[in-house]
Specification:
Layout: E1 19-21, E2 28-31, E3 41-42, E4 49-50, E5 55-59, E6 65-68, E7 72-76, E8 83-90, H1 112-122, E9 130-131, E10 146-150, H2 161-165, H3 169-181, E11 188-193, H4 198-209, E12 213-218, H5 227-234, E13 245-249, H6 250-262, E14 268-274, E15 282-287, H7 292-296, E16 305-309, E17 316-317, E18 331-336, H8 388-392, H9 399-407, H10 411-416, H11 427-431, H12 438-459
Helix pairs in contact: 3-6, 9-12
The structure holds iron/sulfur cluster (SF4) (2 copies).
One iron/sulfur cluster (SF4) binds near residues 392, 423, 424 and 439.
């Protein structure tokens, strides 16, 4: 594989590898929305008593993906808008869930393969699958042309492989075997960052023992964990076959093992809580719907802090309206709010500041981690054509050129210069000395192109 671009960001606040258990809450706020999922179809009524694992809502646009009750309790639909609140919650014993009794009558004659895929959907493991070519959730009944398992997040502050795999390597190995058994003749690519960690040696052993695994080592630089980019680098975007490329991360492989080996519900996940605004940065095992204020109270600094759902480069600031942990969250990143202008900032020569351009005196220091704040981006200035965005872009496009066309709404030109290749990694925005929100502009251009294509399709 030929890698271009990428960048090793050195920022303070990287979570440690320990996974902590959170105290049991009194209630849960289950968001009906997340990045890809929208639970538009409610399956319960206000004040209804539900059991652990009962389906509370479904995403009608995504193969009826279920929102499961992580605990038994009483449903409240009006307490918080766009959430299902579960009150008087009770934890049930961690027992196997009988999926067979839950299969709709019409589907009772499913073959063993379909039953396995149904179990993944019903037990909450299908949410971990995406199509690497479109970024959407794939059809559980469809057949992929390949599977990519990307072991570690390379974006700063997101859950790391060491924490996810700690004492669970055999579960990961079994999950891979189940994943392989779900498809016929589709190659399985296991993507491992090039590190010397103990977990890397264990992963290599698993790959050595299973000839159906194609192990690919990638540079340990962001964003070489990006599934869209990996699919392209492997060459899966070529040829007439347009079937999906399933992409699953380490957590997803664990969820597959939990669902198919033990028939247990996937109602919690390991997420990172870190970033330069965190008092302590680590990993927690949290159930879906866990109250965010309760989760953050021991981690957040007392000074104003922005909470980002995801990593600093690809995540979105959490709005006041979200009260509980959503089904897709991989990490919460805390960044100090810094809105004040620094008086005579130009007189400080920047021993503590990094830039891609090596403008500051920090270049003469040995490597160090910088304290990132929301003010690090400062004010937008015109593009100075420095080319840094082009250097780091892993998609081999020219971000500043696309940005200039997109800014003038010249969509045909943006398309011609490779808009479709942008994987939305955000590195261009991060390194830009003029603080231009290139990623956001290109994202809006991609959305505008999608809308145009849709309206052409509807009118033809
Ligand atoms: S990094 Fe920013 S200033 Fe430099 S070429 Fe790209 S858009 Fe222009
Ligand atoms: S143009 Fe797209 S792929 Fe390239 S660096 Fe920017 S966000 Fe990443």
């Amino acid at each position: 594989m030929k890698f271009k671009g990428g960048y090793d960001l050195q920022l303070k606040g990287v979570p440690d590898k320990e996974v902590r258990e959170l105290p049991e809450p009194d209630l849960l706020y289950l968001p009906l929305f997340s990045n890809l999922i929208n639970f538009s179809q409610l399956c319960v009524k206000d004040a209804e008593e539900v059991t652990q694992g009962q389906i509370l809502a479904k995403d009608a646009e995504n193969y009826s993906l279920p929102l499961l009750a992580p605990r038994a309790g009483t449903v409240k639909l009006e307490t918080v808008p766009h959430h299902i609140t579960l009150e008087k919650i009770q934890k049930s014993p961690d027992e196997a869930f009988n999926v067979e009794t839950d299969i709709p009558e019409a589907d009772k004659k499913l073959g063993s393969l379909e039953k396995k895929r149904y179990a993944l959907l019903r037990l909450g493991a299908w949410q971990f699958f995406t199509d690497a070519t479109t970024g959407a959730i794939p059809d559980p009944i469809g057949n992929p042309r390949a599977i990519i398992v990307s072991i570690s997040h390379l974006e700063p502050f997101l859950a790391c492989a060491e924490a996810l795999l700690n004492n669970r390597i055999s579960s990961f190995s079994k999950g891979l075997e189940h994943l392989h058994s779900l498809v016929e003749n589709a190659p399985l690519y296991l993507i491992l960052p090039n590190t010397k960690s103990a977990y890397a040696a264990q992963i290599k052993n698993i790959a050595r023992e299973n000839s159906w695994i194609k192990l690919l080592e990638v540079p340990s630089k962001y964003p070489f964990d990006n599934s869209k980019l990996l699919a392209r680098l492997i060459g899966l975007d070529k040829g007439p076959d347009k079937s999906p490329v399933w992409c699953v991360g380490t957590e997803g492989v664990m969820a597959i093992d939990l669902a198919l080996t033990s028939s247990k519900l996937c109602i919690s996940r390991i997420i990172s809580i870190g970033g330069p605004g965190a008092k302590t940065a680590g990993h927690v095992n949290a159930i879906i719907g866990y109250p965010l204020t309760m989760m953050l109270e021991t981690y957040r600094e007392d000074s104003p802090t922005r909470v980002i759902n995801g990593g600093v480069l690809t995540g979105k600031a959490l709005g006041e309206e979200q009260k509980g942990l959503d089904i897709e969250c991989q990490g919460l990143t805390l960044v100090p709010e810094h809105n004040k202008r620094e008086l005579l900032a130009f007189t400080r020569l920047g021993f503590t500041k990094h830039t891609y351009s090596n403008t500051f005196l920090s270049v003469i220091r040995p490597p160090f981690r910088e304290r990132y704040t929301t003010g690090i981006r400062g004010e937008t200035r015109p593009c100075i054509s420095c080319g840094f965005c082009q250097d780091v872009c892993p998609a081999e496009i020219i971000p500043h050129l696309l940005y200039k066309y997109a800014d003038k709404n010249r969509l045909e030109e943006v398309e011609r210069f490779g808009l479709g290749l942008c994987v939305q990694c955000g590195l261009c925005t991060h390194v830009c000395p003029s603080k231009i929100e290139i990623k956001q502009v290109l994202f809006e251009a991609q959305e505008a192109v999608k809308q145009e294509l849709l309206s052409v399709e509807q009118h033809s």
